[in-house]
Specification:
Radius of gyration: 17 Å
Structural class: mainly alpha
Distance between the termini: 19 Å
Number of strands: 0
Strand content: under 5%
Number of helices: 9
Shape: globular
Helix content: over 70%
Order of helices and strands: HHHHHHHHH
Largest sheet: none
Number of domains: 1
Length: about 230
């Protein structure tokens, strides 16, 4: 089902790659004396997780619910647990492809990270669960059309204040709100674990707290709010 949504995969894979190339070549970001790619690469990897685990999964699930697909699949021997597991696996599979493509592009643009790959993977897995919970909560509680609009709206807001395009320190009064959201927590964690040469550092404890909190709370909210038809 995931592979059949070619247009969704194109957007999911294409938009992060486009943003990575565009903003690394057009020097408009307030990154100071850092090379733009050192800031952009971790941020765009965070964007890829958000676009796949929240927007793509949430919108697709919302329309599957609206069309009665989920109700039919839930009544088959596949069952709900395996259906949900399949959805999560499909998200992770797409994210693996995204990471391979984006890292290859970033390296080609001059990114030379000092990587703590293990911590980066943990951060991305926590964020995947958090964003999937948010997407499924909206998909399970709202009509498909409302879910589509809200998912794109939330995506845009998190893109702007999630430390993905602009550093959180440059957001002024929005920084307080941004630090409590999973997008900024993930981008800060990836900035620390996958930073360019000379900019690596420890992941702020605040980022781990935010990621764990959202990874626990969002799926619980989704389970409570979700309706299959």
């Amino acid at each position: 089902m995931t592979l059949q949504r070619g247009e969704t995969l194109l957007v999911t894979l294409g938009i992060p790659a486009f943003l990575l190339v565009f903003f690394s070549e057009v020097h408009v970001l307030p990154t100071g004396d850092r090379h733009p790619i050192d800031f952009l690469a971790p941020g765009v990897l965070a964007l890829a997780v958000m676009s796949t685990a929240m927007v793509s999964l949430g919108i697709a699930t919302g329309f599957e619910r609206s069309y009665g697909v989920l109700k039919r699949l839930g009544s088959t021997p596949l069952g709900r647990p395996r259906l949900l597991a399949a959805k999560i696996i499909s998200v992770i599979a797409v994210e693996v492809v995204q990471v391979v493509i984006l890292v290859a592009i970033a390296v080609g643009l001059g990114w030379r990270p000092h990587a703590s790959a293990g911590l980066a993977v943990v951060a991305e897995l926590l964020a995947t669960v958090a964003f999937a919970g948010i997407g499924l909560a909206m998909a399970g509680a709202l009509r498909a059309e409302i879910n589509l609009a809200l998912s794109n709206g939330v995506y845009l807001v998190l893109l702007l204040i999630g430390g993905i395009v602009f550093p959180v320190t440059k957001l002024g009064g929005f920084a307080v709100v941004a630090r409590a959201l999973p997008a900024a927590a993930l981008s800060r964690a990836l900035q620390a674990t996958l930073a360019g040469s000379g900019t690596a550092g420890a992941v702020p404890a605040e980022s781990w707290i935010v990621l764990v909190t959202w990874a626990v709370a969002a799926p619980v909210v989704a389970a409570v709010m979700f309706r299959w038809d």
